[in-house]
Write a structure and sequence with these properties.
Keywords: Disulfide bond, EGF-like domain, Repeat, Signal. This protein has about 220 residues and is mainly β. The chain contains 5 helices and 20 strands. The chain has 4 domains: about 5-40, Laminin, CATH 2.10.25; about 50-120, Laminin (Ribbon), CATH 2.10.25.10; about 125-165, Ribbon (Laminin); about 165-205, Laminin (Ribbon). It has helices at about 5, 45, 85-90, 125-130, 165-170; strands at about 15-20, 25-30, 30-35, 40, 55-60, 65-70, 75, 80, 95-100, 105-110, 115, 120-125, 140-145, 145-150, 155, 160-165, 180-185, 185-190, 195-200, 205. The strands form 10 sheets. The chain has a two-stranded antiparallel sheet with strand order 1-2. A two-stranded antiparallel sheet has the order 3-4. It is rod-shaped, with a radius of gyration of 47 Å.
């Protein structure tokens, strides 16, 4: 009698019946274990017999399992490759931040001149917080991500180094021809010569008046 063919066997639904001479054998399907009459699902995820990638999540199913790559990786779950979010533009770094790919993720670091967590970056006002390197005789102007230094009037240089301009020596003063030019730190003074009056820029000669007396006739 072929018990398998006439379905008089008592094999489990998840078992294969094999007819033998005068009897039959029940063997649990792959993914199940037992004596064939009783078959229980094998949890490959729990017992470590799965072949999921180290960067994949194993999920047990009835008689089998599935593998899904974890976030930051792509593949079929058996093979998982790191996703370069920086290269493919799926990162959320700020426009003024540098994206660096890491294994399974990425980092965002604000560019120089900006402060924040890399996802949000705010311009640093170096002029206001005193982190600029402008000269004491220069004006600091904040810019987007940086700053500029400009020597104040009466000084020359690149703003980081400023040197006093000697207007008297280089002839850029506006003292009168009848005045003395004296250089000062960042400027100059004009002083009218003796015998002249004025502010040094304008000098006028002092007229002499002579007292006289009429002699008697």
């Amino acid at each position: 009698v072929d018990e398998c063919a006439d379905e008089t066997e008592n094999c489990h639904a998840q078992a294969t019946c094999t007819n033998t001479d005068g009897s039959f054998i029940c063997d649990c399907h792959g993914g199940y274990h037992g004596d064939g009459v009783n078959c229980t699902d094998v949890d490959e995820c729990a017992d470590g017999t799965h072949n999921c990638h180290a960067q994949a999540t194993c999920t047990n199913t009835d008689g089998s399992f599935t593998c899904d790559c974890t976030e930051g990786y792509s593949g079929n779950g058996i093979t998982c490759t790191d996703v370069d979010e920086c290269a493919d533009g799926t990162d959320n770094c700020h426009a003024q931040a540098t994206c660096t790919n890491t294994d399974g993720s990425f980092t965002c670091v604000c560019s120089e001149g900006y402060i924040g967590n890399g996802v949000t970056c705010t311009n640093v006002d170096e002029c206001a917080d005193g982190t600029h390197n402008c000269h004491a005789q220069a004006t600091c102007t904040n810019t987007d991500g940086s700053f500029t230094c400009d020597c104040t009037e009466g000084y020359s240089g690149n703003g980081i180094t400023c040197t006093d301009i000697d207007e008297c020596a280089n002839g850029t003063h506006n003292c009168h021809d009848d005045a003395t030019c004296s250089n000062t730190d960042g400027g100059f003074n004009c002083t009218c010569y003796e015998g002249y009056t004025g502010d040094g820029v304008t000098c006028t000669g002092i007229k002499c008046t002579f007292p006289y007396r009429l002699s008697p006739v």
